């Protein structure tokens, strides 16, 4: 290409760009995420950003910061409520203290399988919980998968009694503290990013998470006994700060919601694939897996958790609605 042609091409591109977006209209949104770039959540957020950029002609540019570049989850929740983080992908547990109804989805041994969970979060129960979060400044656009969480420890655990007195890391949520106490363990709330070194140094005896996080954090190197307790299926949300949301017109709100839901379909596919991949990787990396085939003794120990968190009329009704969802 001659110099002149290049200049013309650049000028034409600039005109096209300026038609689709003027600098005063363009918005760049900062997005929080705890996971590394190749994780299903991160890829879902990247897809969300691409769709929004395309469909808004680059008027709304979403920039996800992966790998906890913008801090750990508790700080990120506060920043989002203050409006300094515009969107994020959050696990529901650290939101428990912000909107009590979110606790329902964290409850142990509640979901029959992943289809059951999808029907619940994509239906009226999900909407009701999302409405509570919106009042707390967090607008849920879509629900992402986070699989089932299981226990992993530095010493083998095959039955609940083995956990007695063990220091187990939990997310910062009262329900998780009570859940771990009900199992006889000693719950230790800690940010996700501090778990590896605490397991390594022996400050913790164990933690709990899904296969992909057990793998991506390399916790399997320092707590190699994984027992498939699958005690909670707490899901995650892709959300926008209420401050941003209120400034959008209806067309843009729809654009964002549609893009978020499409990204969730994609994330759920990636999630299902990654669960298997991660399991293979940790086993190759030395993890010792104990299959828990009978979860009844574990579930039976959860009565105090249900008594405390699922007995007021609203919670009891939500639990019933969830159990009846087919
Ligand atoms: C992961 C989840 C994160 C975070 C983490 C944790 O499975 O995706 O958002 O909640 O667990 O245990 O802190």
Name its key features.
four-stranded mixed β-sheet, five-stranded mixed β-sheet, 326 residues, TRAP transporter substrate-binding protein, alpha/beta, DctP_fam, D-Maltodextrin-Binding Protein, domain 2, single chain, TRAP_DctP, TRAP_DctP_sf
Word description of this protein:
- This protein has 326 residues and is of the alpha/beta class.
- It folds into 2 domains: 165 residues, Bacterial extracellular solute-binding protein, family 7 (D-Maltodextrin-Binding Protein, domain 2), CATH 3.40.190.170; 129 residues, Bacterial extracellular solute-binding protein, family 7 (D-Maltodextrin-Binding Protein, domain 2, 3-Layer(aba) Sandwich).
- 47% of the residues lie in helices and 18% in strands.
- α7 links the parallel β6 and β7.
- α2 packs antiparallel against α11 and α7 runs antiparallel to α13.
- The longest helix is centred in the C-terminal third of the chain and has 35 residues.
- About 2% of the residues have low confidence.
- The site of beta-D-galactopyranuronic acid has 9 residues, from loops.
């Amino acid at each position: 290409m001659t110099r002149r042609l290049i200049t013309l091409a650049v000028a034409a591109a600039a005109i096209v760009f300026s038609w689709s977006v003027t600098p005063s209209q363009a918005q760049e949104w900062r997005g929080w995420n705890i996971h590394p770039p190749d994780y299903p959540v991160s890829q879902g957020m990247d897809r969300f950003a691409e769709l929004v950029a395309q469909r808004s002609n680059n008027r709304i540019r979403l920039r996800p910061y992966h790998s906890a570049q913008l801090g750990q989850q508790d700080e990120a929740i506060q920043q989002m409520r203050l409006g300094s983080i515009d969107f994020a992908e959050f696990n529901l547990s650290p939101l428990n203290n912000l909107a009590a109804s979110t606790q329902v989805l964290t409850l142990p041994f509640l979901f029959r399988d992943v289809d059951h969970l999808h029907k619940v979060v994509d239906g009226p129960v999900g909407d009701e919980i999302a409405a509570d979060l919106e009042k707390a400044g967090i607008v849920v656009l879509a629900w992402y998968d986070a699989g089932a969480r299981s226990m992993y420890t530095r010493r083998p655990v095959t039955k609940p009694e083995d956990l007695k007195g063990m220091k187990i890391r939990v997310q910062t949520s009262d329900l998780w503290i009570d859940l771990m106490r009900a199992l006889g363990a000693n719950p230790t709330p800690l940010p996700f990013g501090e778990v590896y070194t605490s397991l390594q140094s022996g400050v913790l005896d164990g933690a709990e998470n899904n296969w992909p996080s057990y793998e991506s954090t390399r916790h399997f190197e320092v707590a190699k006994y994984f027992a498939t307790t699958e005690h909670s299926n707490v899901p995650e949300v892709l959300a926008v700060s209420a401050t941003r949301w209120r400034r959008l017109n209806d067309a843009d709100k729809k654009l964002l919601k549609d893009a978020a839901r499409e990204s969730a379909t994609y994330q759920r596919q990636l999630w299902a694939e990654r669960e298997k991949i991660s399991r293979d990787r940790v086993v190759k990396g030395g993890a010792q897996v104990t299959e828990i085939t009978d979860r009844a003794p574990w579930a039976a120990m959860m009565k105090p958790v249900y008594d405390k968190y699922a007995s007021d009329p609203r919670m009891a009704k939500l639990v019933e609605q969830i159990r009846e969802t087919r």
